[in-house]
């Protein structure tokens, strides 16, 4: 037993000695490895031998910034009137322009450099949106939003969807975008209603914010199915589109009721229990969502020439200027706002805010004065208008123009387009070869757009190529 005990002790001591030797070996290896790393990283502290080669990385070349987007020079020469006339002369002589008027001006000084019947009222088509956007920029803050609310109805279990003028609501799931960027979601209204614990078995839709007719003089009912417009009511889903993924999707003839049905379905309510009506005075608010800011909606209106947005933004201007939220009130509010800002509004006759009406009339000089004020020193509030304009061959309603054939002006011309069956127009600005900013308004009537639009594009392109001294 004693011998066995010694053997155990000896084995333990032996194991201890082996453990110490292993640890010492590991330490030696670690020290050697660290030394090797230090030698590689820092070099030896000893003096280099005669054959040693010491190298260092070459000093990098200095980086010189080369900005590709620079401001236009303030002292760029103004084109002469004769030079402008010579540069665009062949283009404006094109018979494809039909009845034609136009203005070209220097943005900074406002000096008119060329014109042809500039005071003659013409069918403007969607260049009408230039006036709508300008009035909105002058009358409303850029962060102005519209609220859509749900309130308690007059009967038990009844909720009222109250339209606040926002046509951009989306039925897409939260986290996904509909047709309009940053639009409010019906799903958010639903979540708030459910969280409130409010019972619901019927939906009333109150679109009473907007007054009067829902279709303007000079509109055609066939344009609803064609996807250009929908009856203008104070609450809609995707601008009344049946397919929120398409610009010119067929539209609803009852967009407000359709919005109520979408809400009902999301709440599990029978769509047969959705009706038009009025919210009780002082009704308790259950849920609410807000639209994207005005700045976002103006970009969408101008880039894609969205008629529904133009009509609802026109009503925002009407309310801000103290007029009725109707077609007539929007037209009056826009005129009132622009006249108050000092614009001569002579010759303007409008029946809508979008330019879809074939009865609208605007002289080219009125459009160009607004553009000159935005591009020059006329009114800083109008400067964002320039950013909202489509880029030739690049964005929005100009993306498919200047993109093939004669590309002169591509990337340089920025303008609002206008197109109806026998009317085309283009109003915007361009930088000429000397760096001078020129504004223009070009209007063609009595010709189909297939021939008149390329003719208008050629004029704006010629301005881009102009040195014209």
Question: What would you say this structure looks like, in words?
Answer:
The chain contains twelve helices and 14 strands. With 469 residues, the protein is an alpha+beta fold. The strands form four sheets. A five-stranded antiparallel β-sheet has the order 2-1-14-13-12, sandwiched between helices. The radius of gyration is 34 Å and the shape is globular. Mean pLDDT is 89; it is low at 1-49.
Any descriptors?
disordered N terminus; globular; alpha+beta; five-stranded antiparallel sheet; 469 residues
Short account of what is shown:
The chain is α+β, with helices and mostly antiparallel strands and 469 residues long. Helix content is 35%, strand content 16%. The radius of gyration is 34 Å and the shape is globular.
Q: How is this fold's topology laid out?
A:
Layout: H1 2-42, H2 81-92, E1 99-106, E2 112-116, E3 121-122, H3 128-139, E4 147-152, E5 158-162, E6 166-169, H4 186-196, E7 202-206, H5 222-226, E8 235-237, H6 255-267, E9 274-276, E10 285-290, H7 294-303, H8 307-320, H9 327-340, E11 362-363, H10 364-375, H11 384-388, E12 414-420, E13 423-431, E14 437-445, H12 449-464
Parallel strand pairs: 5-7, 6-8, 7-9
Antiparallel strand pairs: 1-2, 1-14, 3-11, 4-5, 4-10, 12-13, 13-14
Largest sheet: 5 strands, antiparallel
Helix content: 25-40%
Number of strands: 14
- Tell me the span between the first and last alpha carbons: 120 Å
Molecular shape: globular
Strand order of the largest sheet: 2-1-14-13-12
Extract low-pLDDT stretches: 1-49
Radius of gyration: 34 Å
**Total of helices:** 12
Please trace the helix and strand order, writing H or E for each element.
Answer: HHEEEHEEEHEHEHEEHHHEHHEEEH
Mean pLDDT: 89
Report the sheet-strand fraction.
15-25%
Q: In terms of structural class, how would the helical and strand content be classed?
A: alpha+beta
